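Researcher: Next entry in the queue.
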Amino acid sequence: MKFCVRSIMNNRVKIFTKIMILLTATIQGQYLSNLNGNKNDAIFSTYAAPLSRSAYKIDQAYHLVWYRSQDPVIFKSEKGGSLGLAFKLNDDYRNRLYQFYAEPVITATYSDMVKFYYYPFQNVRVNVFFAVYSSSLTIIQTEIINEGNTAIDLGIYPYYSHGNRQIDNIQMVDSQAFGFEFVNKRDSWMNNHDIPLIENLKSIYFIDNRTHEKGVYESEKSFLNQINDLKDHVDQSVGKFLVFGKDLFLNPGEKKSIRIVRGIGDAQESYNQLFTKSRKMVEINLENIIRDNEKTYSKIPVLNFSNKDYENLYWNAFSLIRQCIMPPEGASSYNYYVFSREPKWGWGYGGQVFHESLVMLAYAYMDSESAMNSQRVYMERQWPNGYINYRTGPYLDEQIVHNGDFTSSAPWYNYQNYEIFKITGDKKFLEEAYSSGKKFYKYYSSRRDSNKNGLSEWGAHAVLESVRDGQVAVWDRVGWPSNFEGPDINAMMVMEARALASMAQELQYHDEEKEWDLISESRRKLINRYLWDNRTGFYYNVDKNDLDFSFKNKDDLKIKEIIGFLPLWAGVATNKQANELLKAMKDPNEFWRPFGIPTLTAKDEYYNPIGYWNGPIWIQWQYLVFRGLLDYGYVNEAVELAERVMDNIIHQLKVDHNFWEFYSADDYQAGYHKTYIWTGIVARMLIDLDQID
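Model: Structure for this entry, 693 residues:
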């Protein structure tokens, strides 16, 4: 066992007590199986199929809406419809949260399933087990228990809706199964990149019990107002709500259950085929899904928290990452990740990029093999000359040629591979990574130093390659990023060379180790000589032609951005420079904002705490700065930064139970894309905190 004690700022409440990594699998990974979580807890409630049963072209994930008082408790997807449940007792109809006697309590949740209970009426307990069994099959097991002293005659009404969209070609495939068709349209990005997607879909909505009635309705209001008009057959072929009705007579203490299955398939598939697959779900033992998850999650380090919010954040962050991992498909011989499963959208479903792959530094603790395999996706697609394309997926190799040059992603490749190796200890992976990494470094460095002065500039489509692919004060006010040699790309290149040196050392290539050390040290000196400004105590971009802070106007490149702190992460700054950077960082009028370090100083006229690249909090950048603070011994500041960042993430998890692409630096807001994989690196931040002596 390893014990560590955290140093905390004076008079601050400790996030954790001592930390302990437990080695016993029967204890590890059980936290998410034993919850008592309500809507005010930081619980992630989006669910997608497990890695082993996921498919790219047909994929349906769901978000559990259980926290908005005016809404029904439903499993909702943005494109594929929603699954809900209504109840009737003594002509009192209920399906909305505010109507319930007792609100939902989540007892177990993982990336692909959730268990919870609630009371629509007093003494009527409803236990729900929801599982996304595969990308095309979803199960809802509902158990109703009469906890009162008198018998009840309860009406239960499972329903499917497609939001405001019409459901077409409705038919009864079986007396207990609706069949219908719908279209899952690809967006413009998918069209422009020829991303495959099965758009025309068939669906089965099936109940395992004999029902008393069924119906098709145009609205939820008409459905609830006309429940008594349900029949045992369906006459209309279009509508917006598909409803089953079943009467349950329950004596005191008696319980009864029903199972609902939603099946999705290619429209060319017959209803009989889809129905056969759906019926098999009746026999699935759902508790085995929990056991499988416990086995996967048992590999995650168990931290001893004294704060429930942080504990929830930690475990749920792993669920976010795990949910985005997909099995080998198409051109990918290894598992890979997408940015989000629900919603499924454009470039977020196109494939991997290096800056999102930073999340593997957390995920490697959960599933070391699939973290390594995700990096192998880059290796197997690498060109003979060392180039690795901008975005890599099962059906995409996105190079983006600009001015005759091929765009790559920001060079975090070797850094990621070495960090993953430090967790896995896998020498075979290290050999593969080193061989690939050397080629990538030589390719990239030779094409990102146009004047051969030893410092790099962003190349090809430089805005995309630099990660900050939106309105950026420097790009917008001063010029295209390939004109400048910056602290971001050069800090990354220092870390790339250092990672290669560490790999060479592990592999006992000592001559190569020395060579990489010399390369990193040479660049470190150049960064400090030319990109550091003594007067303001900060790192800036410089004009690549004359290595000056002026491009069009005097000192117009002296714009303070978060990239000026990356030399801390890369170990470039001297101790004196680090102290100067800390002064700038701790200024509340510039970077020390309520919820982290914004991408741009708050003093800049372009600053917008929720406006993409001129102010918000991007979690992977926060992690790099946090890591730099720790490495330079600024432990108290690192802890405080982590607390500020996690405060907003936790708040959002309590509000809408989702993770987001970025967060406001100044208030409780988040945007633009939800269920975004890279926010999961917050789990690694928590692990690193726990390793502080």
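Model: DSSP finds 19 helices and 30 strands in the chain.
Researcher: Noted, moving on.
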